[in-house]
Every structure is written in C-alpha cells, then in structure tokens.
Amino acid sequence: MAEQPSADKTLAESWRVEPLTAPRVADLAACHIASWRESYADVVAAHVLTAFDLEQSARGWERRRREGTHRIPVAIVNHELIGFAAATPTELDALYVRASWHGTGVADALIEAATGKSACTLWVFADYPRAHGFYTRHGFADTGVRRVDPFTLLTEQLWQRAPSLK
After folding, report:
1. H or E, element range at 141
2. How far lies 164's CA from each of 74, 90, 91, 138, in Å?
3. Contact 138/113 with Cβ under 8 angstroms?
4. Secondary structure of the chain: what % helix, strand, coil (to 5)?
5. CB distance 140 to 161 below 8 Å
6. What is the dihedral of CA 125, 134, 104, 66, to 10 degrees?
7. What is the residue-level pLDDT of the chain in tens, covering all 166 positions?
8. Which own/partner pairs from 94-100 qualify as long-range (CB within 8 Å, at least 24 positions apart)?
9. Which of 69, 70, 86 is nearest to 28 (CA)?
10. HSE-CB of 13 using CA atoms within 13 angstroms
11. In this predicted structure, what is the pLDDT of residue 144?
C-alpha cells in the first residue's frame, strides 16, 4: 500500500504563486480584508476592521496593478486566492496570507516573489511579535524609527533589510 503524504506536504504542493491579473483583483481585495480581520483581531480595534469597503479596496489594488509600480504576486490554491504580497523596488508594502495557511511556506514564497533578496523596508505594527519573528527570519531588523498609522492609530516600526550577498 502506498504511503499517504503528510498534511504539510500536501498543503505545500497544492498552492502556487503567480502575478496578479485583472480577473483576480477583487479576490485579492477580499483576501486582504479577511486577512486583516483574522490576523489583527487582537491588535486592531473592531470598528476599524469592520470599516473596510471591498469595492474601494479593489479599486486601489487595480490602480496599483495597472500602474505597474508594484510587483504583486498572489498565492492560489485550486481557484482560491489565499495570500499576496506587494512591493516597490525599495519597500514591501503588503504581505498577507489567510490564517489557515500560516506556517505552510506561502508567506515565504510570496516575500521571495515580491522582493527577492533585495534591500528594502517595511512598516510593521509595534505590538505584533508574530510579524517581528517572521521578518527577522527574512533578514529584516527594526531601525528604531516609529510612526502612527493613520488608519488604525497604532504605532508602527520601520524595519529594513540589507541586500543579500548570496
């Protein structure tokens, strides 16, 4: 009898990363909103999480896609968009993966597709140790620079990654 693949192996083999296309923009916006609600429920005020507007979000992502200013890889399993990243040549603007896919390698693949090993910065909530651990693993470090995010009114930290010499 053939050995059954482990759940982790099955998950790892079932998703793929590809560039964002126009037909997937609404799915990306829905994933973005759902990911915020899943990941930040204990960090961001509930009224902020319910304030998202799907159509407005989709318009913003479509603008970025059309302008070509961002590299926007998406993670797909079957026909469902489960995560995405968005980066300019110098900044990682977004990296979100649905909670049920945390720890499967999807976020690792997305950050690689969006930024490669290049030097870049990102803003991360100061009170979000899960993200701090992830970004540390990917070579980022806290610069000590702080700002208040105008949407959530939470403190954010500026993190930076030096270019890889590999």
Report:
1. strand 140-148
2. 23, 14, 15, 10
3. no
4. 40, 30, 30
5. yes
6. 60
7. 333 333 444 555 589 999 999 999 999 999 999 999 999 999 999 999 999 999 999 999 999 999 999 999 999 999 999 999 999 999 999 999 999 999 999 999 999 999 998 999 999 999 999 999 999 999 999 999 999 999 999 999 999 998 765 5
8. 94/32, 95/122, 96/31, 96/32, 96/35, 96/36, 96/39, 97/35, 98/31, 98/34, 98/35, 98/38, 99/35, 99/38, 99/39
9. 86
10. 6
11. 97
Listed residue (111, 86, 88, 92) closest to 29, CA to CA: 86
State both tokens at 97.
């993966």
In three-state secondary structure terms, 48 is helix
Residues found in the chain: 166
Does residue 65 contact residue 22 with C-beta atoms inside 8 Å?
A: yes
Residue 89 burial class via C-beta count within 10 angstroms: exposed 0-12, middle 13-18, buried 19 and up:
exposed
> What is the Cα–Cα distance from 103 to 111, expressed in whole angstroms?
14
